[in-house]
Write a structure and sequence with these properties.
By secondary structure, the chain is of the alpha+beta class. The chain has one domain: Orthogonal Bundle (Arc Repressor Mutant, subunit A), CATH 1.10.10. The chain has 4 helices and 3 strands. It has a 3-stranded antiparallel sheet with strand order 1-3-2. Helix 1 runs antiparallel to helix 2 and helix 1 crosses helix 4. The model has no long low-confidence stretch (mean pLDDT 86).
Amino acid sequence: MELNSKYSIILYKWFSMSYNQFEHYQYKPNRTKKQLEDYKSPRIIISDLRELTDTVDDYSRFDNFEKRVIKDAIKEINSFTHFNVEYKKIKKDVQSIQYSFI
């Protein structure tokens, strides 16, 4: 793989883990449709994403964090891996992001 950014590598591993669970359980009867959908389109809370990417103290402005950590990483993942990842921001009490695998 030609992933250069550490954020791309971290997110790719997270995506792979979730998608592997989806592939493993999709034909087995011991998971609900909701559980399968959660594997296929995982959600992560921004604070958890910051911990995962070790950016808790970096990029204090969300627009900088989004561009450098999320958008750049997803662009690289879509270009150099078999994943085609999209995301959308879900604003609730705690901001989270939902990713979808296509």
